[in-house]
Amino acid sequence: SNKNMLQFITNSDSQINVIDQIKGAIAGGCRWIQVNMKDASDDDIKCVINEVKPLCQESESILILSDRVELVKELELDGVHLDKGAMLPTQAREILGAGPIIGVAANSFSDISQIRYFDIDYISVGPYKHSESSTAESPIVSTDDYASIMAQIHEQQIELPIVAFGDIETTDIQGLWATGINGIAVSNAIANANDISAQTAQFISLLDTPNKIG
Q: Cβ-count burial of 210 within 10 angstroms (0-12 exposed, 13-18 middle, 19+ buried)?
């Protein structure tokens, strides 16, 4: 139901702290926040969540956490995003029960075909580019790759939304959106912006504008 499907993923390497990143993204109109604090302790994550959960509820924003399934359950968050090599979706579903969102990262159509029958809610496909902060060894997924993945998804009648990720900038949106993907996840370009809410709003306006031909 999130029409423009912009997901914001927090970035612990930014000069701006994670809480302020989230406040800025929500102020800019983003309604899907993914807290990604890989090296943080559970307690550090809890502090952030306690601060931002009320803001997300107020603005009706979805709040999910990377990988820490037990914390998602304990803190009653909207869901979890499982990176490649994290817990199996089946195990996460067992822990979380039927309600919460489970997103899973993939690198190729072959990855997608392996997870399509799990009880999951969306698939993140990337990286579109490698960022300095990404440790992923996965091959880059080009615009052509996304287009061919989407063609195979329609062919095989896979109903799961596909979200592109991987150092995506505003200048990448038009080409990516034209491939037929359902959403875009952004971290660096928003978290490192001089004005986080203005940059978020710019991404959203680009996603809300149908591609003009010519």
A: exposed
Phi, psi of 76 (to 5 degrees): 50, 55
Whole-number Å distance between alpha carbons of 138 and 114: 16
Place of tokens 């869901």: 79
Q: What is the mean pLDDT of each run of 10 residues along the chain (214 residues)?
A: 78 97 98 97 98 98 98 98 93 97 97 96 96 73 98 97 97 96 97 98 89 46
Contact criterion met (CB below 8 Å) for 140 and 119: no
Phi-psi region of 76 (alpha: psi -120 to 50; beta: other; left: phi over 0): left
Structure tokens of 19? 């809480």
CA atoms of 165 and 76, how far apart (whole Å) = 25
The partner residues of 105 in beta bridges, in order of sequence, read 124
C-alpha–C-alpha distance, residues 86 and 101, integer Å: 16
Contacts (Cβ under 8 Å, ≥6 apart) of 173 = 184, 203, 206, 207
- The pLDDT of residue 214: 34
What is the pTM assigned to this prediction?
Answer: 0.94
**Residue with the two structure tokens 């996304």:** 146
Return the pLDDT at 209.
75
